[in-house]
Amino acid sequence: MTTRVGLKLPATLSYDRWEKAGLHIFQIADSSAWCLGDWFVYGQERYADRYQTGVPAAGLDYQTLRNYAWVARHFELWRRRARA
Fold it and tell me: What is the rounded CA–CA span in Å between residue 12 and residue 45?
């Protein structure tokens, strides 16, 4: 279970599940700027009159989210490349 300050793991977690959890966590962390940018763009387009009230939910500075959104807008999903 994830919390705002860490991860709670059961005492009986198998190695395989532990390893898969680590990969999943890495993938989320590695893609977070793209995901936040896409989220912000969607909010601007879909909720133009009120998207700014939802911005504090991300826990980031407004300008940081605007930067992520600028990059996300200029690099459509099909143009993005995952690192090898």
Answer: 45
Mean pLDDT for the stretch of residues 69-76 = 94
Within the chain, residue ranges assigned H as helices are: 15-46, 62-74
DSSP label of 6 = E
What are the pLDDT digits (tens) for 25-70?
A: 998 888 999 999 999 999 999 998 888 888 888 888 889 999 999 9
Distances (CA, A) of 34 to 13, 29, 31, 59, 75: 31, 10, 5, 15, 10
> Residue with structure tokens 């279970």?
1
DSSP 8-state assignment for residue 81: -
